[in-house]
Specification:
159 residues; mainly alpha; 0% strand; globular
Length: 159
């Protein structure tokens, strides 16, 4: 992972929950219980940790990246098969949080781990457009287009 990639993942200005990968996190039990724990609809791997992290983010919990801690991850056997359990889990994530949040919709079109700089840059641009008077309308149009594109991807992609 290059420095630019690492910086983007660790940044907490937008979508800090993408660094919530459960192989290497620490959360107070109270916060875990208050959030309701892991969503039980996830029966295969993928997105279950981000969905929980997203709920923590929406509850206002701060995210902090600690340098020097190394997490190891064993790849799941289904990565080497042709099925796509992550798409099913993405649908669950999307259904839980609806298509009204650009952070969730954008995952369908620009995966945060493939290009976290692009993912967060798009979110920053959308946020800026929505706050600047001369771009507010454009921001709303772009966000609506993003939501429609994500919905089309989620529900029309071959199951």
């Amino acid at each position: 992972m290059g420095k630019s990639y690492e910086r983007a993942i660790r940044s907490t200005d937008f979508a800090p929950w993408i660094m919530f990968i459960t192989r290497c996190v620490s959360v107070k039990r109270k916060h875990f219980m208050d959030a309701g724990g892991f969503e039980e609809r996830f029966i295969t791997y993928g997105f279950e940790d981000w969905e929980l992290g997203y709920r923590f983010h929406k509850q206002g919990l701060p995210f902090k990246s600690v340098r020097g801690i190394i997490g190891f991850h064993q790849e799941h056997p289904s990565l080497f098969r042709k099925d796509d359990p992550q798409l099913d889990n993405l649908r669950i994530f999307y259904d839980i949080h609806t298509s009204k949040d650009a952070e969730i919709s954008l995952i369908c079109l620009c995966h945060p781990l493939k290009d976290p700089n692009l993912f967060k840059s798009i979110l920053r641009l959308l946020a800026e457009w929505k706050t600047r008077k001369e771009y507010k309308r454009l921001g709303r149009i772009m966000e609506a287009a993003l939501n429609r594109a994500a919905t089309a991807f989620i529900y029309n992609f071959k199951k």
